[in-house]
Write the structure tokens for this entry.
Amino acid sequence: MNDNIQYTVFIYTENNIGLLNRISAIFQRRHINIESINSSASEIENVSKWTIVVELSEERIKKIIGQLEKQVEVIKAFYHTEDDIIYQESSIFKMRSALLFEERQIQNIIKESNARIVTVNREFFVIEKSGRKEEIDMLSRELSVFGIMQYTRSGRIAVTKDEMRISTMLREAFLHH
Amino acid sequence: MKATQTIQKETNNSQVTERISGSEAVIKCLLAEGVDILYGYPGGAIMPVYDELYKYQDRIHHVMTRHEQGATHAAQGYARISGKVGVAIATSGPGATNLITGIADAQIDSTPMVCITGQVGSHLLGSDAFQETDIVGISTPVTKWNHQITKASQIPEVMAKAFYIARSGRPGPVLIDITKDAQFEEFDFKYEKCTGIRSYKPVPKTDEATLKAAAEAINAAKKPFIVWGQGVILGKAEDAFKAVIEKAGIPSAWTILGASAVPTSHPLNVGMVGMHGNYAPNVLTNDCDVLIAIGMRFDDRVTGNLASYAKQAKIIHFEIDPAEVDKNVKTDIAVLGDAKASLEALLPLLEEKTHQEWHQRFKDLYDVEYEKVIKHDLYPTKEGLTMGEVLKEINIQTKGDAAIVSDVGQHQMVACRYANFNKTKSNITSGGLGTMGFALPAAIGAKMAAPDREVVAIIGDGGYQMTIQELGTIFQQKTPVKIVVLNNEFLGMVRQWQQLFFEKRYASTEMVNPDFVAIAKGYSIAANKVTKREDLKEAVKTMMETEGPYFLEVRVEKEGNVFPMIPTGASVSEIRLE
């Protein structure tokens, strides 16, 4: 029985050394594969925001959120389905420059996929594409026919459609003690 | 740029700043936190701190254990009997890794502990230097919090946070790793206690409506039943808890870590739940109409098969840790918050009840258990001493006032089942992790924290030999603990399972043991061995009357089993009496 759903987890944390280990250990211990993970600055100064994609049942993701929030340096954790969020992934492709002249359809692929060329030099050119996972998958499939020299994609980054009250929570943190 | 304020401090304007070394600062932090005893083992990377311990020895007593694991268990024993934070200290590398078992034990049993480890100089980090190990990485999954200090100036704030985190909310272990250069470095020291961390809410707010709903459910119950855990003890809620059960007349059972919060003799105390718990509370778990769990976490050893655990009952869970709610058992009403505050707020909402018929059910099932099990354990007629009769003699001699420190295995279950507890914080044992070797060092810590109390360690012959080296600590410190080894020449619990579930294939469970009395005497510890029933009473009496440490070996029947028992995968109500 597989009642797994893809969830996007947001974790707001202090920006401290060692948190990556502590957060990933929560998933690892329960034998949960992380589909993608991203950590960056957030809208609040000195607060990090993690975006983690996992496939789990709702019952399990709720428990994971509890374990995450239990960590001293985690301010708040949330889980969302795709309907709740606006998300993007980013990818870059390094290709041989000669292809631009030899294979005319490459230019069409770039145009139609809303990708952009970041740089071109004598040996290679670099394409950047942001979008949904499926769009990047498709671009990757189309380009792979011509041979990709290097290919990297980021984890999901996302924002919620609804408001997140982290700033308020932080302001009020010391009021209840 | 102004630094973001992430922690709240107790302002202390009277304290002047002084220029001292990082290592001296560590000692001053410990003193400011009220630490008078710490347990540890010196080594290269922690030597500067030990040098300061030498200078401060009139104010802070360092107990050198014989192994770092012993230091953690001693710190745990100290914490469990006193409610204060236990402190253990070790060097880098193997010193630090030897702490891990004790830290994991403290984590799963919610014991407040601060561990301090030395670390190689910061310029050597990551170079595979001598005795370098990534102890912060290693300890992350088993600590409530951990941190590495590479600059002396970080010491006061990190130490203040460490103690605050270890003791607040649901307590737990914290590890602080300090590089050697940070220990040597001088800086301007000033200590301010931590009173809050913005990302950390140790005690969730209790919701009044939920509390009211809980009270209504309890008042409406015909067959209410309470299972309490260590949360009652950690939350200093014993009195509030007693008032609640007495007013509402609710039969109440305990998890092993909850034991002693209410005296054994209390008429509403119906015994222990779980795998080797009492018959009545296990069976009636599946008969009650409202199950009230207080400061416990529905461990698998408590619940047996979850699919058939209290399915008929409305579940109310009083809990400080939101992550425990719905973790194992789906709750109908979750009352988050501090146990004492919640129970005090609950009390006036409860109606006075006696539930006499319901109580009678517990008494009837107790009689069944008495006839089938307890009678034979405590008053055996067959040859061969039982563990139960040893506990009975200890109860008689200590009048139930002693703290019982047990190890892990059959003797532990027997100790928890049969020890009489008059006072709270009297059952010190390794619950969640099941750490063999816990008892001997934990007894040392417990006795030092509560010198006026009798501390009796009950240990099996297997676990005893896992930390037997701590006899050296007892010898050197003259710690007057009483050590009882119940020797069946087997790893008894594993052997019991081999007998019941592996067709008596006793794979590596038979022990060929040394002369334990001679070993104790080698450490100048008075010692005796009992092999016959008629000598038991006198031997226990002599042990309790002897001043100073004492070792008593009791040869018990070799293949005795602990019953009742809920076999793995069975329901609590399928508990076996034989």
In short: The helical segments of chain A are 19-29, 58-70, 98-102, 105-112, 133-144, 166-172. DSSP finds six helices and nine strands in chain A.
